[in-house]
Fold this protein.
Amino acid sequence: MSYRIDAIPSSVLDEVRASGLDASGNPAEGVMASGGEPLRCCHRDATAGEDLILFGYEPPLPASPYREIGAVFTHAAPCAGPPSDSRYPAAWRGRPQILRAYDARGWIHPATRVDDGTDPEAAIEAILADPAVTLIHTRNVAYGCFMLAIVPDR
């Protein structure tokens, strides 16, 4: 099964940077990275001293009871984006994750915990073997934050 890895769309990032407002209309917060903040714009961890913004983001999902807004970090200025949309981010390998699957209605399917993060592709392939799954969101285990979206090519 082939799939793509989606970062936060550049159009969303452009709007937040231009307006200074997040998905709820709250101000985006400028933050100086202390190092290790997961950057949803380029799928790597920040290094100390980088200029970031922290804002509420509503990940892609059809209108359903499972839609939510959560805090994410991105670069304050546009960056090159992720190195690939066809591979799990190398910088996040080994990081425990929750893989939360959804169907076409935006209803949640059982979540899968990937404890060591060394082979996320195997877990992704297993989840996408269910033809009802149309989208996966990966989540940070400790904080529950959205990390990235996985969309099957069907």
